[in-house]
Each structure stands twice: as C-alpha cells, then as structure tokens.
Design a protein that fits this description.
The complex is a heterodimer of chains A (168) and B (134). Chain A has 168 residues and is mostly helical. Helices cover 74% and strands 0% of the residues of chain A. In chain A, α5 packs antiparallel against α6. The radius of gyration of chain A is 17 Å and the shape is globular. The chains are: A mainly alpha (168), B mainly alpha (134).
C-alpha cells in the first residue's frame, strides 16, 4: 500500500509534468518550452527527494527563474556567443552567492536560452510556470519538509575558481 | 581559453555537464570512481537521447523511451545522477545539425570539465595530507 501511495505522490506527478511539458511543446509547436533541467529538478525533488533541494523549496522556483530570465535577455544582446556564455556564468554565480545557495541546476536554466537561441517569450513563461508548479507540488505533497539544515558555508573560492575554469 | 580558441565549437557549454561539475566541486571528496560513473551516466544519457530522437520522430514517444531507459540505466549502475535525465532531453532542444556528434561532444566536455574538478580536488587533498607544509 505504501509503495502505491509513494508512486501516486512522487513518481506520477514528476513524469506527468515532464510529459505535459513536451506535449505543450508539440501543441504550440515551439521547442523552447522543453526545459531539460526542469525534468531533472522534478525527478530529483519528487522521486529521489534530494534533501539539499527540498530544504528550501522557494529557491527552486526563484533561482532557476532568475537565471533563465537573465540568460534570455543576455541572449538578446548582440554579442559573441562565448562572451554571452561567460556573462551567463558570471550571472549565475552572482545569483547563487547572493542567495547563499548551491542549486547547481540554476546553471543549466541560465545557459539553456543562450545555447538554444531561445527568442520567444514562451521560454520565459514556461520556466516560470514549471518551477512555480514544482514549488507548489512540493508544498502540497511534502507536508513534512526536512528541516532547513545549517548549510555548510559554500566557499566562494570554489565558485570563483570553477567560474574561471568553466569560462575558459 | 579553449572556448575562445575554438569559437566554432559553440556547443561546448553543455548545461548538464556544467551542473555536475559544479555539484562535484562542492563535495568533500571526489574519488576517481565517482568521476568515472558520472562520465558514464552523462554520455549514456546523451546517447539515449540522440538515438530515441532519431528513431522516433515523435517527441512524446521519444521522451517516454528516454525516461524508461535512463531510469533503467541509473538502476543498473546504481548511481542517482539526475542531470542524466536532463541530458537525454537536451538533443530535442538543440539547434539542428549538431546531433550526430552530440555523444562525442558530451564525452569530451565531461572529460575536460569533470577531469579538471577531479585534478583540482585531488591536488588539494594531497597538499592537505602533506605534513610540515605551512
């Protein structure tokens, strides 16, 4: 019984959202709606229950949306692609330092619009709706959230080093 | 610098690889076994994504195949790496033409980025364990 309940609460919603996302992309005939990293976030949160992510559910909505919108507008600038990618990396690291978070998928949502040349507002709507849904589904399905564990102070040195290497 | 030098290789920054690298650099230890499994997972995820998109033109069907195969693969190697799911969906959104060598690029990027993280982590560990170093 427990496993059926688990399946209904965890596995089904995660896969349902992923297929809805792809279905929406087909209906609107717009592939920018497909956000690969969102599927990873759903599966990581609902099925594997990554405690570090579940501890602060609102960040799951806020940070990927911020970096995605930032990436979207950076992509509109008339710049060399490499310059844009470096700008996105700087932006994401700045956001993560600002919110004292280590939510790595924020990198992917930031980089995605630049790599796929997303240019319709559909991309922005998609990320806002999908991450908001994730936040709400965690609130609904997980009444007993793990306590916000004292977060190990992420060393900025690591971040900056990684940033400099990745931009290389 | 590699990215600047090879500007033509615009596909270089593959998001899931950056994500895994970023996660790994925050871990306390990063042994070679984990490094190998990460590369294996990501590359297989990329191959699954490319093949399923190529064999089934229908996005929904190929996503279904992706999910089933990636879940099975993660079960086989017993390594929960969620970016693998992202990797298998990524070929759908990439601008055309680059699909053929996608798996190869992923392998290359994995080795470069994660290899850097591994070297960095292990050099640090060695220097910490060396006594008498101020």
């Amino acid at each position: 019984m427990l496993s059926v309940k688990n399946w209904l609460h965890q596995t089904l919603p995660a896969y349902a959202i992923i297929f809805l996302m792809i279905g929406a992309a087909m209906v609107f005939n717009n592939r920018e709606i497909i956000l690969p990293e969102v599927s990873a976030l759903y599966i990581g949160c609902l099925i594997y229950q990554n405690p570090a992510w579940l501890a602060r559910p609102f960040h799951l909505f806020l940070l990927p949306s911020l970096t995605a919108v930032g990436g979207f507008f950076i992509n509109r600038l008339e710049l060399n692609l490499a310059v844009k990618l470096v700008m996105v990396l700087v932006l994401v690291v700045a956001v993560l330092i600002l919110f004292k978070s280590t939510l790595a998928p924020a990198f992917a949502t930031g980089l995605l619009p630049v790599i796929t040349h997303a240019d319709s507002m559909m991309f922005v709507y998609a990320i806002l709706v999908l991450t908001l849904l994730l936040y709400m589904s965690i609130r609904l399905l997980h009444q007993h959230l793990p306590p916000a564990e004292p977060i190990k102070r992420p060393s900025h040195q690591h971040k900056l080093l990684y940033l400099s290497f990745a931009s290389v | 610098m590699i990215c600047y030098a090879m500007n033509w290789m615009f596909i270089a920054a593959i998001p899931p690889v950056i994500v895994v690298g970023y996660e790994s650099i925050h871990k306390d230890v990063y042994p070679a076994g984990i490094f190998g499994k990460q590369v294996l997972c990501l590359v297989v995820g990329a191959l699954i994504g490319t093949l399923s998109l190529y064999l089934f033109k229908n996005l929904l069907l190929s996503a279904l195949i992706d999910m089933v195969l990636v879940t099975a693969w993660i079960g086989i190697v017993k390594f929960k790496l969620t970016p693998t799911y992202a990797m298998s969906l990524l070929p759908m959104v990439l601008p055309g033409s680059s699909h053929t060598y996608f798996g190869l690029w992923v392998l290359l990027m994995c080795l470069v980025v994660l290899g850097f993280v591994w070297v960095y982590k292990n050099i640090r560990m060695i220097s910490i364990s060396l006594p008498g170093r101020s």
